[in-house]
Amino acid sequence: MYAFPRMNVLEIPEEEEGKDSILCYATMYSRKVIANNVTTLLNQILQGYDRHLRPGFNMKRTTVFIDIFVRTMGPIADLTDTYSFNCYFRQMWTDSRLKFNGTQNKQLSLSMAMLDKIWKPDTYFWNGARSYTHTMTTSNRLVRLYPDGTVLYSSRLTIKGKCAMSMKRYPLDRQACRLVLGSYAFGSDELLYDWRVMGTDRGVQMDYDGIKDLPQFSMTGFQVFNSTNMTRDRNYSALEVRFYFDRHFGYFLMNFYVPCTLIVLLCWVAFWTNREATGDRVGMGITSVLTMVLIANDSKSDAPKVNFPTALDIYIWICYTTLLICMVEFTVVHYFTKFNTGDPEIQALEREKMRQIIRRIPKTAVMSSRRPYRKPLTTSPTLHHGITRRDGGRHSMYHRVRQVSVRKRFLAPQHSICSMEGNQVPTIEEFQQDSVGWRLYYWMMNNGRPTDPFGLAQNSISSVDRFSRIALPIYFVAVVIVYYNFYVNTPYDFTFDDEYIANPINPM
């Protein structure tokens, strides 16, 4: 009898020691016999086996069943139109040449060396960019052989595929990234691919804990297809799975949509500023436009460079247009309805100039010529409290852009207008062309009551401003509602350039 040497210094009864030695020897012997039997069995199976010929060659086509267990998803790169995921990729087919007696062995786990000696399908990913098999700490692959000749080939892969993303609704978009797989060389009349049914699932399973925290997207579902591709010179059997993603909107809401909306709101608040504050209004408008330019440039730093406007570009241009409307409104108010300047220093200078002009005009020269020399007013826009003027609101002596052409008429030719110092003052024609004098003249010709024709006592509000305070918010809200309905509520229709015959199966 074979006996093992004693390896323990503890005192063990000789009877127990002998039993353990016999049991250990029997186990080792049994394993050796089984290993020899498996080796002999595999050698018998492979005797006369040609790995270059598919199962059922020249008799029937071979069916390969596929199932994928997705462990993790991402990253999804819209700059390169790619996506990747980690999965267990399993293929199962039946090869009648590999049948064996399963009385003692219900299944055999084969080594990778054995895998190289049998036929396996030439499966590849039609839209694959770069996929690889994990090799740490060893090659993550396994092969199992069942008595009826069924082979299960499983491997852990990281698959990177091309994803034709449509960026027209970016960042309100929804993407469909697909994985298409099939045979590289065998046509559909030789090799047929089908999804493997696993309980209630068909083809694809998900580890939802591993895919719920994607950085840019949230996965909303998937759908599997059985397809027949027309490629090159024949039909090829193919399988397809489409993963559906919704882009996270919070980042874009906080960094682009809310700031742009607040800038438009700031420009709208400017309508409550008095029209005399030209500098404040123009400064606010220019600052708003420059800020929008900065936001627009920042929005393009991480976005894909496409030759069409995205949804974010459209919203920024909506805000640009609103700011342009505000600037045009400022210009209209300033040019056509502004009565005087809002600068206190300039107002004081104008008051002093008016006092000097009034002192130099004899009362008889103005009042006696009121009727005979009254000039008909062709346009008399209402300014403030019923006061009219002729020259479109360009009354300030600091805004003399256009000279008013008048007829050379004198109020009273028999009188001369002399200054208090005795010097000859400008003629009546120059007085009529003077901005302040021109206002005073027409006010005195149209109104004989003592009031403030120059509006210097208080700042005024334009009716255009009053209208814009209501019209601009209505316009902006209406445009945003149309924008939202178009980019969010419009149903998606995913189309692909290489579309083929596809039969959808149980969408998630």
From TrEMBL:
- State a single Pfam family of this protein: Neur_chan_memb
What domain of life?
Eukaryota
Give the principal location in a single coarse category.
Answer: membrane
Signal sequence interval, chain numbering: none
* GO molecular function, a single term: GABA-A receptor activity
Keyword Protease recorded: no
NCBIfam families associated with the record: LIC
Q: What is this protein's record name? A: Cation transporter family protein
- Organism in which the protein naturally occurs: Necator americanus (Human hookworm)
